Amino acid sequence: MIHSLFLINCSGDIFLEKHWKSVVSQSVCDYFFEAQEKAIDVENVPPVISTPHHYLISIYRDKIFFVSVIQTEVPPLFVIEFLHRVADTFQDYFGECSETAIKDNVVIVYELLEEMLDNGFPLATESNILKELIKPPTILRSVVNSITGSSNVGDTLPTGQLSNIPWRRAGVKYTNNEAYFDVIEEIDAIIDKSGSTVFAEIQGVIDSCIKLSGMPDLSLSFMNPRLLDDVSFHPCIRFKRWESERVLSFIPPDGNFRLISYRVSSQNLVAIPVYVKHMISFKENSSSGRFDVTIGPKQNMGKTVEGVVMTVHMPKAVLNMNLTATQGSYTFDPVIKVLTWDVGKITPQKLPNLKGIVNLQSGAPKPEENPSLNIQFKIQQLAISGLKVNRLDMYGEKYKPFKGVKYITKAGKFQVRT
Amino acid sequence: EIFELKAELNSDKKEKKKEAVKKVIASMTVGKDVSALFPDVVNCMQTDNLELKKLVYLYLMNYAKSQPDMAIMAVNTFVKDCEDPNPLIRALAVRTMGCIRVDKITEYLCEPLRKCLKDEDPYVRKTAAVCVAKLHDINAQLVEDQGFLDTLKDLISDSNPMVVANAVAALSEIAESHPSSNLLDLNPQSINKLLTALNECTEWGQIFILDCLANYMPKDDREAQSICERVTPRLSHANSAVVLSAVKVLMKFMEMLSKDLDYYGTLLKKLAPPLVTLLSAEPELQYVALRNINLIVQKRPEILKHEMKVFFVKYNDPIYVKLEKLDIMIRLASQANIAQVLAELKEYATEVDVDFVRKAVRAIGRCAIKVEQSAERCVSTLLDLIQTKVNYVVQEAIVVIKDIFRKYPNKYESVIATLCENLDSLDEPEARAAMIWIVGEYAERIDNADELLESFLEGFHDESTQVQLQLLTAIVKLFLKKPTETQELVQQVLSLATQDSDNPDLRDRGYIYWRLLSTDPVAAKEVVLAEKPLISEETDLIEPTLLDELICYIGTLASVYHKPPSAFVEGSRGVVHKSLPPRTGSSESAESPDTAPSGVQAAEQPAVIPTQGDLLGDLLNLDLGPPVSGPPIATSSVQMGAVDLLGGGLDSLMGDESEGMGGSGSFAPAPSTAVPANLGAPLGSGLGDLFDLTGGVGTLSGSYVAPKTVWLPAMKAKGLEISGTFSRQVGSISMDLVLTNKALQVMSDFAIQFNRNSFGLAPAAPLQVHAPLAPNQSVEISLPLNTVGSVMKMDPLNNLQVAVKNNIDVFYFSTLYPLHILFVEDGKMERQMFLATWKDIPNENEAQFQIKDCSLNADAVSSKLQGSNIFTIAKRNVEGQDMLYQSLKLTNGIWVLAELRIQPSNPSFTDLELSLKCRAPEVSQYVYQAYETILKN
Fold first, then answer.
1. Which of A371, A376, A373 is closest to A309 using CA atoms?
2. Which of A249, B370, B894, B930 could form a disulfide with B890 if both were Cys (CB 3.0 to 4.6 A apart)?
3. Checking phi first, is residue B675 left (phi over 0); if not, alpha (psi -120 to 50) or beta?
4. Please, which contacts does B775-779 make with residues 24 or more away whose CB atoms are closer than 8 Å?
5. Which three-class secondary structure state does DSSP give residue B103?
6. What span, in angstroms and rounded, lies between the C-alpha atoms of A202 and A184?
7. DSSP E strands: which ranges in A96-244?
8. Kind of pairing between the strands at A318-325 and A338-344
9. Residues of A in contact with B236 (CB under 8 A)
10. What is the rounded CA–CA span in Å between residue A132 and residue A145?
11. Quick count: other Cβ atoms within 10 Å of Cβ B298?
12. Nearest residue on chain A to B244, alpha-carbon basis
């Protein structure tokens, strides 16, 4: 099971350590630093590292390495999932998962880690339960606590941990009962030079914000549930109901949570809402090149494409770029060679274009590789897969809740090769 | 600062106390030493304030170990808290007590723990279950004595799913240090309980339960199917670890289902989506998932055959994800999708990352070999890449084109001209060797072959061995093809190889060619230009038996490393090898080979050749090709072939691991598959002079036994003196003891116990002293030992702590046992296995030792060592020095390979140089000590 956890920042300082069994010396992290050095880029540090006596399994989140030490055969995914859960919990408690936030709340962090793992076994990882045990810090509460002398540790048995619905705390009460669902779809795609789609799929999630009193039993149905053939469920969903009736039936956790995530596979046709025309060339034996990119809308179901940002990792030999944008603004960072073009909204009447000259290091050979264009965009009020919620029914409670569904489509890993 | 905190901790105000404890905890978290405050913090423990209590507990867990005497002070509060009406406090107390790793406290823990295990509140029971595992970690004996294990087993039938999950988790952890115990003996009833709990417990509990289920062997296909049906819903879980554990259970039990069953097809279909979904998760999860998918794709390619596209590489994937995806793309490549794959690979070959680009180019070559229809397109893609003139791309391309030539001879030779243009840019040995091989092989079609080869010959001495060997062979080939113009060249190379080189392999090969050419040129032609076996389609597949074992370890570290746990888990002690269940059901007779018994599988496996590491050895063998698919060859050539074959094999054993062998980190296919079994006979007989097998020398006489030494002097043990030694005879280990009573009173009631130790040594029978021991009397006892006790790594490794009890007192002593009592009788490795294993173990694991002034010659050394189960596999004489290759196996399954070089130092003495290779390098030093002891006595 998980032995110890070290939190390491980008400059290689171990700023927090927690041991659930015997203490493992910090020196074990040297193996990690070694691997980090070899990987050059922080993203490329291998997640599983073996050392003579331990295994180090790490994740990289929000500029922090979460490095766990294990000694026996443990499923690595179990460890990685758990580490992400720790990071999520910090995010949830402190609003951000950063070194400063963790250092400012070190005692709460320690208490949380103690509750989340007992002797290496996960104990309470559901945010609902943790919040019952350890209240998140708020300015108001710390003021109140210092006056009344009460603490931020709950004095109740975490009731949820025992019931058959461990994700929901008991005795929830709201004056306004609300249930909101966000259907968020991201398009992952690789578009080749000629503009045809090499690979495309849709990663969707339904994030929910449920503030309902008591023990509501919800069922959510879709107009076209057939779209969902590859789904991962929150534990609250009754799998049998879904198998037989294609209805999501569940008693929800309290607050924000991810109800389902799904994938609309590449077998189905995926609509690509933008196209990119590009001309990037480097001349042989001259220290310059040309850059010309235009972005336009297509297959966007009549909705506006907005929040468009293009980032390009230019080849190492590029010194500088002199470009003009017909819309939005661009920056080029000559140190990391990244071009960012913040386009904004696309209006079909006047297509945004960025063009100009690329300055290369003189004498360097013509770059072999062609940079890929990374595109981000957003489309409000549209689920690109066509998924639509039909209705939400509530059983078990008498009040009438407010209900709402929002759709949004975004670019995920959307890459255009040139 | 400490002083201030101390004052605050002793303050009367609750608030101030709490703030102070918080400050202490904060300092502790960042690694500051605040242990000096121990008594003051512990004083704060008696409080009703839950937060304060928790904080003090946190502190206690951290520092109790360093202040065991002070920690006792806290015991009373713990015991009281365990009786608290609030179950939260009861649970917290029992949980914290378990985390205090102090021996003295554990005694007090037993009673409260027993109560908590039967607590009415499931929250307390589930916490107590984990506590048993903690306690076991600190004091295993205590847990067994107190019967906690049985209580834990009972908890598997608990009504609360959380308790069940935790009991399973605790038992699994305990079972890991007791590989032979039957802690998790599952029967259909308990399986049913687990499956019910599976639906209702937390995601983490589901992982434990699924992993436990995977170890169960259903009695028939119907039971397997019903378990599969109940596990399938887990595939839709949001937690990827749950998904992968469920995949493991399904992959394993599927083996028992008949392929004709509708359900089998349904299950196959259900497995694909969750695996693909894992690839949209965070990169770290993707990596682990990809390593596992790599196994799954090899076992059941049909599952993901339509999902090629999800493995396409995105330019900003981390490099570790890119490389894995590439591997899987090649495995999935088929005629249907080859066009897409090639287009992608070509795209990757222009990326920035050099490692990735190289692998992509290699992948194109592998596609050509795997999918015949695509070969032509692959070759033209490779030619396009060569045109880019990017140095490392060109070199990789040439290496893979050589493989393509070998797979499709006489088909693509038109490209040779283009290759020759790039001769000058090749600076890597592997690429140079490949190019030279091509020139030699197709010498008759290259007009200026002699000039090309001559140009390489100029810097012959600066080339690496790989290139030198290749050049020698290529020029001999050239000579046999165009004897008239190249006589001078061949003489030049032969003299360079035989006279100017220090490398024994090069010299041997040179001599062989020379004699062959001078005695019988016709035979030489038949040997050197013999038709070569085609290389096989699928490259670097994992060997089927290993694959089957790894399938049982899906989701674990073993699956990430593609090695069985026994190969890398520290102090791996007789890890029980898992195997897939045999298929039952109707279609048994019409089985596909993948479920045939393992022995047959190995034989049926086609010659798996060109992983990088093996290319050299393979190329060498090739020249004198073993008659796999070639035409019959004259007897003489077979014998010569055998010589070179072994020479080639020995290359890998002897020299330059760094060049030829070090390359691939992946599982190297055992060369045994490349050497057909029917060569065995002529090989053995024709080689008497090269290989002198020492089989039959030295009969089993039992291993060396050191004289007895005094372990426990009488002064230290109230008059009881113990001396003893260890011995091993015909497979059984014993500890030979002499107990002497030097006191004035009669001793009786002897008993003995071992502490946990590195190899699990434990008494196999109680210590039997029949009559009471009168004053000044001695008794000799031989205590049989076994190695199934609990394991704990000791320092030094061979340290054994022993407790002996008699009617007077209990005495403790520790002794070092010689490692050779652990060398088992079946420690002789197959020669081919030896070669493969030697290569497979990284060079960092090699340890060198000297044994000076030994009075034995090679044969005597070999027979003496054999008496102690160190087996000589091969013997060779190099420049007047004898080299012995030896293997031995420890009781826990660790293999140690040895190379022993015997150098005569003066007429009657020799110096021995010992190189040991082992996957667990920490044992090497002790093996060396065993060698020394055996040889010097």
1. A376
2. B894
3. beta
4. B775/B741, B775/B742, B775/B743, B775/B744, B775/B745, B775/B746, B776/B740, B776/B741, B776/B742, B777/B740, B777/B741, B778/B738, B778/B739, B778/B740, B778/B741, B779/B738, B779/B739
5. helix
6. 10
7. 117-118, 121-122, 178-191, 197-211, 217-222, 231-233
8. unpaired
9. 231-233, 239
10. 16
11. 18
12. A77
Helices (H) and strands (E) in chain B, counts: 38, 13
Q: How far is the C-alpha of B125 from the C-alpha of B119, rounded, in Å?
A: 6
- B25: closest chain A residue by CA: A107
Q: Tens place of pLDDT for every residue, chain A, 418 residues? A: 888 999 999 888 888 888 888 778 888 889 999 888 888 788 888 999 988 888 999 999 989 999 999 988 888 999 999 999 999 999 888 888 899 988 888 888 888 898 888 888 888 888 877 887 787 776 555 555 555 544 555 555 555 455 667 778 777 888 889 999 999 999 999 998 888 888 888 999 999 999 999 889 999 999 988 888 888 888 889 888 998 999 999 999 888 889 999 988 755 678 888 999 998 888 877 778 889 999 988 876 778 899 999 999 888 888 888 999 999 999 999 888 899 999 999 888 888 999 999 888 877 777 777 788 999 999 999 888 889 999 999 998 888 999 999 999 999 889 998 8
What is the value of pTM for the model shown?
A: 0.70
Q: What is the DSSP letter of A111?
A: H
∠ Cα B606 B611 B613 (to 5°)? 130
- Say if residue A11 is exposed, middle or buried (CB neighbours under 10 Å; 0-12, 13-18, 19+): exposed
* Neighbouring C-beta atoms of residue A256, cutoff 10 Å: 14
Q: What residues of B are in contact with residue A155 (Cβ under 8 Å)? A: 50, 88
A 369-408: CB under 8 A from B: 369-370, 372, 374
* Residue pair B925/B914 in contact by the 8 Å Cβ criterion: no
List chain B residues with CB under 8 Å of A144: none
Residues 6+ apart with CB under 8 A from B882: B857, B858, B875, B876, B901, B902
Of the CA atoms within 13 Å of residue B72, those in its CB half-sphere come to 5
Report how far residue B139's alpha carbon sits from residue B131's, in angstroms, rounded to the nearest whole number: 12
Nearest to residue B583, comparing CAs of B548, B532, B547?
Answer: B548
For residue B910, what are its two tokens? 């020799």
- Residue B786 buriedness (CB in 10 A; 0-12 / 13-18 / 19+): middle
How far is residue B138 CA from its own chain's centroid?
28
- Which residues of chain B are within 8 Å of residue A417 when distances are taken between CB atoms? 347
Residue B356 in 3-state DSSP? helix
Which amino acid type is present at position B364?
I
The CA distance from B629 to B627, in Å, is 6
Question: What ipTM was estimated for this complex?
Answer: 0.86
3-class secondary structure, B632? coil
Angle formed at CA B65 by CA B62 and CA B70, multiple of 5 degrees: 100
Pairing of strands A288-297, B709-712: unpaired
Amino acid symbol at B67? Q
**CA of B203 to nearest chain A CA: how many angstroms apart?**
8
Q: How many CB atoms lie within 10 A of CB A412?
A: 18
Q: B765: which 2 tokens? A: 């029978």
For residues B693 and B684, what is the distance between their CA atoms, to the nearest angstrom? 9
Q: Are A43 and B283 a contacting pair at CB < 8 A?
A: yes
Query: Coil, strand, or helix at residue A18?
Result: strand
CA distances from A201 to A204, A272, A388, A413, B118 (A): 10, 10, 18, 10, 52
- Structure tokens that stand for B139 in this block: 């004091």
Residue B165: closest C-alpha in chain A? A121
3-class DSSP state for residue B897? strand
